[in-house]
Amino acid sequence: MSRHETSPTTVQPASNHRPNACCFCWCCCCSCSWNEDRERAWRASRETKLERIPNCEACAKPTPEEVQGWAQSFDKLMKSPAGRNVFREFLRTEYSEENMLFWLACEELKTECNKQTIDEKARMIYEDYISILSPKEVSLDSRVREVINRKMQEPSSHTFDDAQLQIYTLMHRDSYPRFLNSAIYKSLLQTVSHSSSES
């Protein structure tokens, strides 16, 4: 969601600290495949405290069978690091990448055991994705927001479970059908199928 508020956090240029994506990532979200100036400007306008989530998850190139499986089940897509990378790239074209970023942040929070770390990450997730002042605010109903506000008084690794499920359902019902019909998915399916037939 677009907001006029700007983050007080100083934004470091993305190219200074990020390795060349093409050196370790096969997928279509490598920085070389995009107009980097346009990408940096868009990212700077949406900077948040949880920018530690990498641009791509490290993963192997998917097999044709795996890519085809993504069309059979949204669960299969979301359980695959490669699938999440490609789906996230599609969400970026629709300016709704925050849905995947929020889901990933919630997954990361669930792995934490240290109380102080949980408190810190929960507050960062709240500021980045739940707060109405955030440029990356995700779309949640009032009931879920009330639940989160209560749970934030004593955050746990499952504070955002209801919200995560709601966003997962939103991506499944809204974005996933368009993803399957997108040029990004069809092009990847054609590429991996062609590579497989040549080998």
Walkthrough of the structure:
This protein has a domain at 63-196: Orthogonal Bundle (Regulator of G-protein Signalling 4, domain 2), CATH 1.10.167.10. By secondary structure, it is mostly helical. The protein is 58% helix and 0% strand. It contains 10 helices and no strands. It has helices at 14-17, 36-45, 64-69, 74-79, 81-93, 97-110, 115-130, 142-151, 161-180, 183-198. The N and C termini lie far apart (44 Å).
Provide tags for this entry.
Regulator of G-protein Signalling 4, domain 2, 58% helix, mainly alpha, 199 residues, disordered N terminus
Identify low-pLDDT runs.
2-26, 28-35
Identify the CATH architecture of the domain at 63-196: Orthogonal Bundle
Please, how many helices?
10
Radius of gyration: 18 Å
- What proportion strand? under 5%
Helix content: 55-70%
Average residue-wise pLDDT: 81
GO biological process, one term: negative regulation of signal transduction
Membrane topology: Lipid-anchor
Domain RGS: 73-189
Subcellular location: Cytoplasm; Membrane; Nucleus
Question: How is the secondary structure organized here?
Answer:
Blueprint: H1 14-17, H2 36-45, H3 64-69, H4 74-79, H5 81-93, H6 97-110, H7 115-130, H8 142-151, H9 161-180, H10 183-198
Helix pairs in contact: 5-6, 6-7, 6-9
Subcellular location: Cytoplasm; Membrane; Nucleus
InterPro entries: RGS, RGS_sf, RGS_subdom1/3, RGS_subdomain_2
Protein name: Regulator of G-protein signaling 20
